[in-house]
């Protein structure tokens, strides 16, 4: 059973999400929170698998709450998905840097929300390739001069190659086709790379790919 915590200051939004999620046989809503402080307290107590976190909330906004969660080693397995009104919310990029696993727009289709919750728990790509590439393109446009790539010293050549492909927005299936390997092998390479770099998830791996200079703006084609 996937346990989800809903954090949003709008009760109607929480009610809609709860009705959808609780209707699934493999998902349950563990708790709700109306502000960031309440969300952090509930997360520390309940340890849900996934948090659907609104960016704009009173007392403590979603971005600050996410930093507290991702900065707590005891909550390392909790995945945070940011909820935004617009796909390219100005805070989304900072949220990804802070450890959020991705983001969803509040008016997303029900099937996409359910797929996203299950995908992030499985460690797979959270967002559709199109949305992922738009996010990466925007991040690339805002990125600074890449740092030294010393943090990649422990990676094999194949792992660097896989990380670069993740960095340009390819899914495991697309990576498998590009490298002529099985999807399981591609997923294994991605997982090992994340472990070696201490990345919480795929989204952070994308950020590291740019910050290390392994992938540079303009590679998106």
From TrEMBL:
The keyword Transcription applies. SMART domains: HTH_LUXR, REC. GO terms for molecular function: DNA binding. The modification 4-aspartylphosphate is found at residue 54. Residues 148-213 form the HTH luxR-type domain. It holds the Pfam family Response_reg. This is LuxR family transcriptional regulator. It comes from Streptomyces mutabilis.
